[in-house]
Amino acid sequence: MATVPQSPRTVSFSASNIMKTPTISSASKARIAAKTPTSGGGAASPKEWTLDSFEVGRALGKGKYGNVYLAREKESGVVVALKVIFKKQVDRHAIYDQLRDEVEIQSRLRHPGVLRLYGYFHDDKRVYLVLELATGGELYKRLQAEERFSEAQTARWIAQIADALRVVHENKVIHRDIKPENLLLDAEDNLKIADFGWSTIAKHKRKTFCGTLDYLAPEMLSDGVYDNRVDVWALGVLCYECLTGRAPFETSDSVDETHRNIINMTPRYPDDVHVSDEAKSLIAALLQKLPADRMTLEQVLTHPFVAKHAARERMLDAAAQ
Ligand code: AMP
Prior knowledge:
Blueprint: E1 2-7, E2 10-14, H1 26-33, E3 54-62, E4 67-73, E5 79-86, H2 87-92, H3 96-108, E6 117-122, E7 126-131, E8 137-138, H4 139-146, H5 151-170, E9 173-174, E10 183-185, E11 191-193, E12 200-201, H6 218-221, H7 229-244, H8 255-264, H9 277-286, H10 297-302, H11 304-320
Antiparallel strand pairs: 1-2, 3-4, 4-5, 5-7, 6-7, 8-10, 9-12, 10-11
Adenosine monophosphate binds next to strand 3, strand 5 and strand 8.
């Protein structure tokens, strides 16, 4: 089993990484050409991108396999994020399948809560992903800076991700790695699901072991057979972490201890943080050990914790107009 460490607190696993050299078919190129960002809704003529099509600006962040830059597409004037991945790194880490899935899945999903992938191109050394710009950066960094979020803020983001996941699942895709590191904020503080590197087309129940330790659903750890309800579990972990600043099953002891907690433990709340009964009830409904007992994404959107804050936000929006 291949292990790809991503950061000290995150470890992802995959049994199915196959080393290949990235090549892009002419049919794929034609599909991408139709996805050129357009300014003001005007139709840009389909064209193939090269690095020359962009003015590249400052670095927005550094990823495991390359950097992400601010860039402007010259023809349309649209400002995007250009993710540059070195082919050497793709080969070295055997992540060709991951990259191909990321491109194929993310470019066809359309929802305000899913980071748009407008297209991609490549040269001798690099693959370039042309992504929607999310200037607010990673939710993870925001959480580190603020320690935890208010219930209103958390409810708003949980609603956004639940709604986006509904569309992801409707498209027969399982994300499998929902966590604050993979959620980006735009300029209006809206959350977007990014990084579809571990996602998969959900044709049937899967057995590949992947995702991030603290966010792994119990069924992935026990019999390894799972479906899209692993993303619903991860939403529960996310909600807990947003409200308390730490993941519900994490321990400093060992990986095995965290596994045991995920399978057996009911989350406890720290004494120094007030979490409302409504929030606890949502988290409990999402963190049901049996997938069949877990709340659906539709039910998340009408749960009192989410609905109360959504109604308040609508009121504030109306007052501001
Ligand atoms: P990644 O390689 O996807 O892990 O991205 C590395 C870093 O680049 C992230 O932590 C973000 O800070 C930044 N980044 C990635 N994608 C975007 C984007 N679409 N818009 C703005 N910043 C991004």
